[in-house]
């Protein structure tokens, strides 16, 4: 993987991934930011969410579980002192799908967190990660 982060003035940077996708990264308002981009640590948390959600979905598909809706809500807590790493992350998985089975969902989340999600493996070095899930009626 490759990427590039280019200074764009103030505390704004333009990031480009090796895949060609771009986004703005900016410091907080107290550092001079103007709310024109993601904060770096927001992207870290969203990266964990994307990694987990993708892996969980793929595992459920292999289990022949049909998912029609899936939302992953994340809440992270960070250390008070620098480096302000994540110390706790709660993930709430919310599913809908005909005949989704709770044991299959639980197993998919466990496999994603413990085996497949690279971001989870990195986060777990500094943060306690908890997962919960709900299956809503279709």
Description of the structure:
The chain is of the alpha+beta class. It has 3 helices and 6 strands; from the N terminus they run βββαββααβ. The strands form 2 sheets. It has a 3-stranded antiparallel β-sheet, with no helix packed on it. The protein has a 3-stranded mixed β-sheet with strand order 4-5-6, covered by helices on one side. Strand 4 and strand 5 form a beta hairpin. The longest helix has 23 residues, at 40-62. It is elongated, with a radius of gyration of 17 Å. The N and C termini lie far apart (39 Å).
Helix content: 25-40%
Poorly predicted runs of 5 or more residues:
none
- Structural class call reads alpha+beta
**CA-based shape:** elongated
CATH topology of the largest domain: GMP Synthetase, Chain A, domain 3
**CATH level-four homologous superfamily name of the largest domain:** K homology (KH) domain
Order of helices and strands: EEEHEEHHE
- Average pLDDT over all residues: 97
Strand content range = 25-35%
Give the strand order, joined by hyphens, for the main sheet: 1-2-3
The description of the largest β-sheet is: 3 strands, antiparallel
